Amino acid sequence: MSSNSNVGDHRTYEAGDQRNYSKGEKQEAERYKEGQPHSHLAQDSKDERSIANKLGREEKRQNEPEPEKDMETKQSKIDPTLPAKAHGNEPSSGAKKDKEIEDEEAEMLKKKGAFGPQ
């Protein structure tokens, strides 16, 4: 019927975009992103993994060592102003207040004395 049509060019109706593939061509074709690593998020509530798979992953996670923290994170646990000072910057007001609070708490603990067996 397309040969009798007055709309458009006859080349637009040829099989370029409406091709039927044979079974052999389908089996040889590369699968689209099948089984990509890290394709499942552990805390994704909409993930359709089975409960057994989720439990298995949690068991593996318990046996894994904790990831190493970078130097700045370690420094900020010791003193909130250290990371900024290490980069040659003035610490932020929040870091300064955190440092003041830590110092006050340490002073209060010294006044109260040691608690428990040592």
UniProtKB/TrEMBL annotation:
Residues 8-77 have a biased composition (Basic and acidic residues). Residues 1-118 are annotated as: Disordered. This is Uncharacterized protein.
